[in-house]
Amino acid sequence: MKVAIIHDWLLHYRGGERVLEAIAEMYPDADIFTLFYKKGTTSAAIDRHRIIPSFLNSLPGSDKYYRWLLPLFPMAVERWDLSGYDLVISSSHCVAKGVIVPPHAQHVCYLYTPMRYAWDQYWNYFGGKLVERLMFPFLHYLRMWDVTSSARVDRFFAISNSVARRAQLYYGRTSDVLPVFVDLTAFSPMDVPVEDFYLVASALVPYKKIEVAIEACARLNRRLVVIGEGPELGRLSALAGSNVFFTGKVPLETLRKAYATCRALLFPGEEDFGIVPLEAMAMGRPVIAFGRGGVLDTVVDGETGILYDPNSVDGLVEAIRELEAGPAFSPAACQARAREFTREKFQQRFRALLAGPERPAARPLRELDSRPPELSH
Fold it and tell me: Least buried of 32, 181, 201, 301, by fewest C-beta within 10 Å?
């Protein structure tokens, strides 16, 4: 069986690329198609595959300014000739799922999210900005293409129940839920005492809602350490008092120690999945998180952390008080929960889903239940 793997772009080594690496490991002879590729920016395991970039990759400066080429992405993925392949696996958060496959081939999409900036995160990316006026006409077209191209996928594997529900909402398609994994070789318990501070580990971008954590800790006069970098640093620094410490990007060992010694990880944003809470739990620490999105699949409320809603300063303040007033969370319980999300289990579940019966392609939206479906194992 000849296998093609489609990934949006290969210019960084982040969560999506770690998943791609795990999928590619199952198919060592697979070819990888991607919009943009720069050797050495991901991992040696990925670079060992035959990688076919799109025609956009040859444009000067495309590795730095690729986002400005978004209007050309659909055309680029449709130009690949996949006629010789029997199985096509798209690893998609943007346009990878839109490839055109031959009629005899099976197309499985591992879906990180429907395009965030075209759908539910549109106003976070473009709202109130001049670029919104320029992008809106194109994004209207892109939404139509996104829905139309979803019909080219035989089966969807969604990263979380939250993403599965959005795939149903925007595409009218059902999905099997296949959570991603945490790297337990990098994030394992440390024998260090817990210190008196809370932790945020995140890119500093608007939808992460880090200002909620800053204001909640200011109200309670609690120390907060913020690990990460991004365009929101200036605005967040202006909000912060002397109780908040910004570290920027840190080495892995520093991050591990911060996880291991914090009172709890604060996670006020809504994520498609959210690997950071799993990393904290793997280090034995509880999570206080806004109770929507991917954390509903990972954090066990009252056992490995506290989920709060609505996402407000008041809500987070009450959750912190609840943690401090209650019995200590068990590090062993947090670690046990993280061990349910290993790379090996991900690969086993992927193979099992691929070999199992296909779900119905769609169901009426009125049949959607308010509760998330059970995790597929």
Answer: 301
When divided into structural domains, the chain yields a total of 2
Q: What percent of the chain is modeled with pLDDT above 90?
A: 79
Task: Indicate whether 376 pLDDT > 50.
Answer: no
Looking at the structure, tell me whether residues 211 and 297 fall in a common domain.
Answer: yes
Note the pLDDT tens digit of each residue in 296-349: 999 999 999 999 998 899 999 999 999 999 899 999 999 999 999 999 999 999
Joined together, the tokens standing for residue 145 give 């293409």
Domain co-membership, 329 together with 349: no
Domain boundaries, position 288: 198-338
> The whole model's pTM is what?
0.87
Judge if 111 and 227 occupy the same domain.
no
> Cα(359)–Cα(153) distance, rounded to whole angstroms?
12
Same domain? For 126 and 48 the reply is yes
CA dihedral 313, 273, 251, 61 (to 10 degrees): -110
